[in-house]
Amino acid sequence: MKVRNPLHHQFQYLLEIKETERKWHFPFLAALCIGSCLFIGYFTGKPNYGALASLGALTILYFTSAPMAQRMIHLAVCAVGIIFSFAVSSFFGFNIYFASLAVAVISFLAHFISSYFKIPPPAIFSLSWLRRWQARIRLTRN
């Protein structure tokens, strides 16, 4: 009887390189959008503000090769989601229990909205990660 190693198959998908539909210059555009915020924050002496501003630049990850109307909807939904996530984190960041509840609510809403608008990957990942990161910054600052 042959014994299979299920872990080998799980890690195989992590190391697999797939074709992408994005243009070759997209990684450079994403690095420019996110890196420019970080550099401006560093050179003005406020690296925390630069890091926070670079989170808003993550909306560039949702720029796809879809038709123009669909691209505008995706970017608008992601921008509003980031603003809403930041507002909720500022409001509920005073207590670790309320922050945990807010993370759960934001993750649920991000999943529901990204599924409704059929937003391609990274879909929920960036919005829920953003919310957790903002809550952590808010709690460590106090």
From TrEMBL:
According to the lineage, what is the superkingdom?
Bacteria
Assigned keywords, A-Z = Membrane, Transmembrane, Transmembrane helix
Mark the transmembrane ranges.
24-43, 49-65, 72-92
The record lists the organism as Chryseobacterium endophyticum
Protein's name according to its UniProt entry: HPP family protein
